[in-house]
Amino acid sequence: MLTRPITTGIFSPVENMWAHIREGGGFKNKTFNSLDEVELKLAEELKKLDKETVKSITLFKWIKEEVWYQTSQRKIWRSF
Most CB atoms within 10 A, among 2, 15, 40, 57? Predict the structure, then answer.
């Protein structure tokens, strides 16, 4: 289980992803006629994102450290 700092926008990878999509994906100041339109546009924008872009937006230092810690703990326990 990953531990997380207090949940705020600056610590939430989802908030950063949404900001990226909203600003660059045609969501800012746009009105949609239905929820289906929003979902289609969101799916379209998500498909445009490559792995490196997603990592650069969402992989915070605390996440990298936690993943490293969890991985190293598994290696330690496997050695017993």
Answer: 57
Joined together, the tokens standing for residue 42 give 């969101």
Query: What residues contact 48, with CB distance under 8 A and at least 6 apart?
Result: 25
**Every domain of the chain and the residues it spans:** 16-78
Task: Give the tens place of pLDDT for each residue, 21-75.
Answer: 888 877 888 899 999 999 999 999 999 999 888 888 887 777 777 777 788 776 6
Give this prediction's pTM: 0.58
